[in-house]
Amino acid sequence: MLNAVLSIAMVSAILLLFGAWKRWRRDGSSQQMWLMVAAALVIFANVAIWVVPDKQGKSLVTEAG
Asked: How many CB atoms lie within 10 A of CB 44?
C-alpha cells in the first residue's frame, strides 16, 4: 500500500510541475505557478525522505514493510 501512495505522490508532483509549466507558458510568471512548483518540491522531498537509504542501508519504506 505504501508503494502505491508513494507512486501517486510522484505522479501528482510531476503533474504539478506540468501544470506550472503550462501556466508559465500561458500567463508568464505568477504566484500560483510558483506555489505549484513549491508544492511539487515538497512532495519530492517527502518521497526522498521515505525512499533514500541511510548509512546502514535502511530506508523508511523497507522498515515499514
From this structure: 16
- The single residue listed with the C-alpha cell 510558483 is 34
Whole-angstrom distance, CA of residue 29 vs CA of residue 35:
11
What string of DSSP letters covers 34-55?
A: HHHHHHHHHHHHHHHHHHS--T
Burial class (CB in 10 A: 0-12, 13-18, 19+), 19: middle
**For 15-63, how does the pLDDT look when each residue is reduced to its tens digit (9 = 90+)?**
999 999 999 999 888 999 999 999 999 999 999 999 999 899 888 888 8
The three cell numbers of residue 6 are 508513494
Report the 10 Å Cβ neighbour count for 45.
11
Q: What is the pLDDT of residue 16?
A: 98
